[in-house]
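Q: What would this chain look like folded?
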Amino acid sequence: MTIELVEHYTKATSESTRLTRSPHGMLEYRRTQELLRRTLTRPPARILDVGGGTGIHAQWLAADGYDVHLVDPVPAHVEAAAALPGVTAELGDARELRAPDQSADVVLLFGPLYHLTEAADRSQALAEARRVLRPGGLVVAAAISRYLSLLETGTTGRLTTEMAPAVRQVITTGDYDGHVGFMPTHFHTADELRAELESTGLKDVHVYGVEGPAWPALDVAGEREFDQLVDAALQCARIAEQDPLMINVSAHLLAVAAVPPR
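A: My prediction, written as structure tokens:
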């Protein structure tokens, strides 16, 4: 998986522009900032950004006053992140972190839980996050919703009879085969994401829908309409962020959990 991951992010796509090249990406970025600023303890605190890409979140977190160290398996990502003010970075794997025990206040997992397609690997990544956190520290983990491809293809006119079986499969199993782009990954439901964190011994798990129900409409409207529509989309996301009947219509999910105090 690591070789395929490096190949994908080096040749097939640019992670540095992912959250700025589409309306739903821009919405995801704003909502992720909002949820983190609402959830995290105030700086100073040590954040380990595991799978942090080129550092799009590490950059603003460092500017907010956090001590941010990024870990990523893609050399180009690490090089880009290490050049950011206040950010350090290294090559690494979420399943085998080099950080010492109880050395971080927060671990961000904004990629590993969908790129690790085997449940055992996701469990290992969560166990590593717990190992490096101090008692009371937080894991913040992102996941892709199983309903992303249904909503994306259904609102853009791309959902065909030929594509429908693949869409049904990802909803049923979480196994995404790349049918709307990206690479094969694992897509979660909110309940599945919560259960994976709880199975590692993490406590007080809260799962949020990031973009809310309006994200497909933003993409259909296009970038020129984004500024006019984004405030309503943000309000929509906030209202539905933990609604059990609506949470899975977000493109992404964000789980926050704590390491039990000793």
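DSSP finds eleven helices and nine strands in the chain.
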